[in-house]
Amino acid sequence: MAKEKGTDEILSQLGIDRSDPDQAVEKLRSLHASGVEQSQIAAAAGLIATPASAQLLARMEAGASGALRREIRRSLFKLRQHGIEAPVEASARPAPALAAAESLTAILSPADPEGAQLVWLVKPRPQGGLSRLYGLTSESDGLVGATLVHLSRRELREERRDIERRTSVKLIDADYHLGDFILCEAYRRTPQARRGQVGNFLALRAEILAEPPPLEYRHPIYDEFAATLDQEASPDLFKEAEVADWRIPEAELKPYLSEIEEIRQSPLVLNQYQQQERINAVAGRALEQLIAGPRRDAMRRRLENTAFYLARTGRPNAARWAASAAARIRDGHNLGRSPFFVELVMRSIGQAMSHQRQETEQQPRLIMTPAEAMRAQAARARRLRR
After folding, report:
1. CA–CA gap between residue 225 and residue 363 (Å, rounded)
2. Across the beta sheet with 142-151, what order do the strands follow?
3. pLDDT of residue 35
4. Cα–Cα nearest to 198, from 148, 144, 149
5. What is the dihedral of CA 247, 249, 252, 257, to 10 degrees?
6. Residues of the chain with pLDDT under 50
7. What pLDDT score does 63 carry?
8. Range 6-13, long-range pairs (CB < 8 A, 24+ positions)
9. CA of 224: how far to CAs of 81, 194, 301, 304, in Å?
10. Letter string b/e over residues 3-29, b meaning 16 or more CB atoms within 10 A of that residue's CB
């Protein structure tokens, strides 16, 4: 009975229901790709008596070592007790290139308000120490920088701690496929005029990874939060430090800001509810037109990576909202009906208008708007009646 309780506890911690073995193994595959504790996944796979579990364990065994390899072997032994053997071709010793890839890991920062993100790909060296491919990505400029250095594990730990201390931002571990895709996609988006600064990125990457650069990638958050993707993303996501300062650039909002200012100053629209209704319509058009095309794709990727980061830093509700917002974009929903995206545009407009008011207050005014003239005339009439 105690053993069974331990079994249920392992599966429960991972959110696995073994009543449907196929679905349970599929969830384990997604957790394996997303960087969840691998020993936990190996232990859980040994509790699901299906050939698919043996295949997953055999794939995990390629390149595994130490405690993880022992856990995998224990789980394979449990499956053999149920008459399930690992496939011979999958459990055979991997080719050197595959083994090298499996030993890669990624270290990620969250994206900052401008969409910049730090990505490291780290690989052990046969002669000792580590090789680290360092990349800095930007939503607007693509891959900003890329370097490959060799360092010791102690040096890597110290540099990581130093970055976290200076920036007050936690770096997280991730599956190398995610880090590699972020870097390769950023390189493809790098303007040709800036390619010279990172022109050797593909050569540097080839030194630690023999696979061709990925063109597509299914983000693990869609499997991790599959049960809640149809729920709306709450505007409370903006309470998280990593999202609080997201804004649409003021320069892109200028046409809409001018239109809103005309509505506010118009002598024909005096009712505040009428004003707000027209302003909301302008904001809706801004949302539809500005979060489109490349910006729409960039926003989806940022939300995907933010959901992953929030989940790995212990904030499941916020991670769920970010994943749902990303799914809204992926599935082509009307963002104008999504509270999170409406809030993003209204915050952006509000900040831009506040900035414009500050600039206006600092400049002398010689000409009144029609609305200001009407208010001044009404004020003079009231003073004369007193």
Report:
1. 51
2. 142-151, 130-138, 117-124, 105-108, 172-174
3. 59
4. 144
5. 70
6. 1-5, 89-100
7. 55
8. 7/47, 10/40, 10/43, 10/44, 10/47, 11/44, 11/47, 13/40
9. 30, 36, 16, 11
10. eeeeeeebbeebebebeeeeebbebbb
